């Protein structure tokens, strides 16, 4: 009698295939940008402005004068950012196996850390965007952390784990 066992979920694959991390980053960016546009439209800002604010990371205040071209650049920049976030988790999971064994906890922590790093460190101190010292509304910050935990961090963990279980790489 032949027995078949499932592959160990801890076997580490060399890399996440680009289409998987790119699809994950694209999906996360589209959903996050849609939620941001919806939230800020209720506060008097157009969706175009949300997209231009991402473009301002690289273009500075000129992004707000660029119309749909700078908005499209903002979308691409954010897709690239979240795709890099997805790929980085997979890369880290090769060294730190707990990231694969505990995908919900580690993914949630990773998502919260990525939100903080992107918006409270990189955008504030290292981008061309003009940021203001005043705090954003508490409900906005809470929504952002929830999105980064539930729609970015945890999916990062499961994408990395799925890749490993399938034995890709």
UniProtKB/TrEMBL annotation:
The keyword Membrane applies. Keywords: Membrane, Transmembrane, Transmembrane helix. The chain crosses the membrane at residues 20-39, 70-92, 104-122, 142-160. This is Uncharacterized protein.
């Amino acid at each position: 009698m032949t027995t078949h066992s499932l592959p160990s979920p801890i076997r580490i694959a060399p890399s996440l295939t680009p289409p998987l991390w790119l699809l994950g980053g694209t999906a996360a960016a589209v959903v996050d940008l849609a939620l941001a546009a919806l939230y800020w439209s209720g506060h008097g800002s157009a969706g175009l402005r949300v997209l231009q604010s991402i473009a301002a990371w690289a273009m500075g205040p000129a992004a707000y004068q660029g119309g749909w071209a700078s908005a499209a650049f903002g979308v691409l920049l954010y897709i690239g950012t979240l795709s890099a976030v997805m790929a980085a988790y997979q890369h880290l999971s090769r060294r730190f196996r707990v990231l694969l064994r505990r995908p919900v906890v580690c993914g949630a922590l990773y998502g919260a850390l990525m939100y903080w790093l992107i918006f409270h460190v990189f955008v504030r101190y290292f981008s061309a965007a003009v940021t203001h010292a005043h705090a954003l509304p508490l409900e906005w910050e809470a929504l952002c952390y929830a999105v980064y935990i539930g729609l970015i961090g945890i999916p990062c963990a499961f994408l990395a784990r799925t890749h490993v279980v399938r034995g890709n790489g």
